[in-house]
Amino acid sequence: MCGFTGFIGNTENAGSILNKMMDRIIHRGPDSAGEFLEGEAALGFRRLSIIDLESGSQPFHNEDNTLVSMVNGEIYNFQELREELIGKGHDFTTHSDCEVIIHGYEEYGTAIFSRLRGMFACAIWDRQEKKLVVARDMFGIKPLYYANMNGVLLFGSEIKSFLPHPAFKKEVNRDALKPYLTFQYSVMDETFFKGVFKLPAAHFMVYKEGQVSLERYWEPSFDVNEKPLEETVEEIDSVIRESIQAHRISDVKVGSFLSSGVDSSYVASVLKPDKTFTVGFSDKNFSEIDNAQILSDELEIQNINEVLNSDECFSELEQIQYLMDEPHSNPSIVPLYFLAQLAKKDVTVVLSGEGADELFGGYDDYDVRPNLKKYRKLPAGLRSAVGSAAAKLPEMRGKQFLIQGGLPVEKWFIGQANVFPEHEAARMLKPAYQTGPTVAEIVQPVYDRVKGKDDLTKMQYLDLNLWLVGDILLKADKMSMAHSLELRVPFLDKKVMETASRLPAHYRIGANDTKYAMRLAARRALPEVSANRKKMGFPVPIRNWMREDKFYQQIKSYFTSDEAAEFFNQNELLALLDEHYTNKANNARKIWTIFMFLVWHRRYFVSEQPDAVQVQLGEESALV
């Protein structure tokens, strides 16, 4: 795994600037560096050696040196593509899987991106046409950002790499804060840095003569193909096992993350690595270590685990938010950071279970509960009126039941996080930050692409396009690469997606459980107790921490700061905090979401020093 950064546009001292930009992402690739500088083009690469350790350095060049490329990722069908391209006359200079992209682009143009099986973000510079093409994998597993500022296009794996460039203007995007308070992550294409954009998953971008154009090259389709259950289960098991085998290809040690859920357990049971890795907390019901240890013992593999404490977690919050690039309040980022740190001591590659819920129907919200089914038998007009009225009520028991039972899914489902209701988010903010798109403006364009599908498919599709790429995969990439660890996700595979997209709804959500058919497939590899165990989802005891005086005082110092006064109505913040501290309410997620924004803002807009950044490499720290 690697990282890259670069720019197109006239820049004084381009080589020096590029090196400073590359230093910002040295954690993504500590093994070596490569660069290309010519005229207005500057491409910089940091490498973490995984395949072809000796000669797989980048940038890559085609045969006549008219194209230059950099790739962050792994291509799992590279061998068949390589043979095909060699048959068409292409000469490869390395054994790297990623070299197929530059030759594939030379042969097929942008059509190559839809043929790739793997995770990738790439940049290709055409020296003759003075054209840059960047692309991102179909699920958005690998990140890619760009900014067109002051006559210069900046692009790279992480936003922080843009900071040293003189054309970069660092400014908070005022429109990003209100939706963040609801979704808990940066949900728009434009990031929290004004003028900096995420390239959406399954898209490529062309930059030429100062103009940017985007095009989508792949769209998930859900076309049901009803088959007997046993045949479907066999197909699921077969395609997942094949994907896990493809994802294990490496010239370095491979391990597996292991929680108590069926997804990572399925991966570990098929992979059978030498070691699995788990972290947890000492608080009751906040650890998956015991369950992970039981499965590892049954598989006769070693489970390496660690119990985290609150002090070490709080000490790393600023570093974590810095590494994320944008504020992100999913509490599971914290244990994931330490889990990656733990695994890196023994391996360079880990497999994990992300994506199974979105593909196979694993979230609780997807499951229509029996009492809700009964309620939906009432006349639609009555339910609609009740649901609309309930949506206007303050938070109370039964409100969500009435909304879900009475309103179309497009009106209430926004994904797996819904921290602040929209009206409450606005109440927290100063007028200047109450702008930005509404929740409906964010989700409706996604729903519009699956008109006519059933509610379950609509929810999965929304999560694939927003929650998965904006929350789950982003934190997986940033927290693993923070420790120079490559994380692979075999459920998020082209062939697995083809199988999952054909499942009828009743094979996704069964009478008694989510991921019905996939759980049956997992039983072929797992003991029944592990196959049926409910996911805990990286539980983090933030609600307990905030009731400890030392952490309460730390958060309060942020909430009463001059920085907070710029964005928030501080009386509202303190009311939330004190209600929670005195155990009058559980406001943990709301407090954490605001707190993480303020931690991020302080790190990037108050503490940030030009051309100097603290990064962690293994257990050492270096100022670069």
TrEMBL record:
Its EC number is 6.3.5.4. Pfam families: Asn_synthase, GATase_7. Signal peptide: none annotated. It comes from the Bacteria. Keywords: Amino-acid biosynthesis, Asparagine biosynthesis, ATP-binding, Glutamine amidotransferase, Ligase, Nucleotide-binding. It catalyses: L-aspartate + L-glutamine + ATP + H2O = L-asparagine + L-glutamate + AMP + diphosphate + H(+). GO terms for molecular function: asparagine synthase (glutamine-hydrolyzing) activity. CDD domains: Asn_synthase_B_C, AsnB. It is an enzyme of class 6 (ligase). Pathway: Amino-acid biosynthesis; L-asparagine biosynthesis; L-asparagine from L-aspartate (L-Gln route): step 1/1. The keyword Transferase does not apply. InterPro entries: Asn_synth_AEB (IPR006426), Asn_synthase (IPR001962), ASN_synthetase/amidase (IPR051786), AsnB_N (IPR033738), GATase_2_dom (IPR017932), Ntn_hydrolases_N (IPR029055), Rossmann-like_a/b/a_fold (IPR014729). SUPFAM superfamilies: Adenine nucleotide alpha hydrolases-like, N-terminal nucleophile aminohydrolases (Ntn hydrolases). Residues 2-210 form the Glutamine amidotransferase type-2 domain. Belongs to the asparagine synthetase family. NCBIfam families: asn_synth_AEB (TIGR01536). This is asparagine synthase (glutamine-hydrolyzing). It comes from Planomicrobium okeanokoites (Planococcus okeanokoites). The gene is asnB.
